[in-house]
Amino acid sequence: MKLNELSDNPGATTARTRVGRGPASGKGKTAGRGVKGQKSRSGVAINGFEGGQMPLYMRLPKRGFTPHNQARYAELNIGKLQAAIDAKKLDAKKPLDEDALVAAGVVRRKRDGIRLLAKGTLKAKLDLSVTGASKAAIAAVEKAGGTVTLVAAKPAAKDD
Prior knowledge:
CATH 3.100.10.10; three-stranded parallel beta sheet; two-stranded parallel sheet; 11% strand
């Protein structure tokens, strides 16, 4: 394969529509802008303009921001974990990792990792390995006789 032999997939690129080039083009005369009025003229940008009234986006308060690269974890409470063990979805004797939790349907998807939280009670002795866990959740698992291993988060593709 050579550089001069490269080409895009068929239909991947389309030619720019040339407007105002006669009636046969389908975009002749008014070039798809209708007739007269401010929006048919050039140099018009009316998005968000409310006729001189203070626009809505300026009337509402603005606070903070959402970081785009922030890690998002799938949250799992120990109560839900115990319910899955009681329902025989999980085997408490085997070591449980994130893939096993997803396969059992306890967590829908891993996202950037699974974070264990302390809501609920845990009676089963578990060997868990998750991306993150609260101090109270680790204490609850250890109180039940189990262990929590924290694994490094793998950068995953955003799936939602």
